[in-house]
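Quick one: structure for this chain?
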Amino acid sequence: MATGYVFDEIFTKHNLARHPENARRLEAIMDYLASRNILPRLTSVPSRAATPDELAYCHHPRYVELVQNASNRGGGMLDADTYANEFSYDAACHAVGGLIDLTAAVVRGDLDNGFGLVRPPGHHATPSRAMGFCLFGTVALAARAAYKDMGLERVAIVDFDVHHGNGTEAILDEDPAVFFVSSHQYPYYPGTGAINDIGSGQGKGTVFNIPLSVMTGDEGFKSLYGNAVFPALRRFQPELILVSAGFDAHWDDPLANIGLSLNGYYWLCQSLVTLAGELCQGRIVFTLEGGYNLDVLAPGVGNAFRALLGDSEPDDPMGGSPWKEPDVSGLLAELKRIHQL
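Got it. Here's what it folds into:
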């Protein structure tokens, strides 16, 4: 399989060393991919800056100007959690443009699938606000470009970051062309993503929130995705699946405690790749979101690439969660009721 990736040194220049979302995250990933001989098996797709018109697919021009001006001034804190430096606007624009071009290559059939190794992350950025370490809604922008510029009619986004993708939902809440799934620890930052939030207006029914209790773990994810998410995606019949890939749902992540293992992550990635083969000619593109334990993040991304490449042996040096998993049958039944599965 021809698997593409996007990486650019500009992504490492958006950096604040003491911040959990820093350049070392991406450096650790690239080191891992090179040392495990994964990188030579991949096809590089160059990044480029998204245009103002592309950014306007999801963001108010005045907000884009605000981020640009903040970078031009040398940066600062855009909210309590989200920083910018002199390179941040350029990095965020290249993250968006690179992911759009990677997605276009997959849609055209030049590549089978791909992974955008981009930062800053994006799924908390709203149309007019930076938050949660995120500047621009990278995956939402790629989804909008897929149906505005690439001829697709239905796109799915699956967000398995431990935090709710509130920015992605805020952007796409009324958009019937995009089916958005988010599994996330709840209640937890940013406090959104309740089970009854299912979209509004013409987009009613195209938002699928899975609010998870702590320690949910591998078996809980398998039950909820296998019996609720995958049937919902089959009903929607997307022509492309985009994945907001956050690796902070691992049991040893310092910022959360949901209980996935690296083997569990591999199962999830492999299952999504298989589902893309069933539903949309294998068209699936991952993009990097959270994950703050580098010993988890690097092999987690490596395992996602193994799934994209068709490899059958994941790397799990951390082992399984030490926690007892809760019963998710009640949550599963409620999801089936709300979404009429």
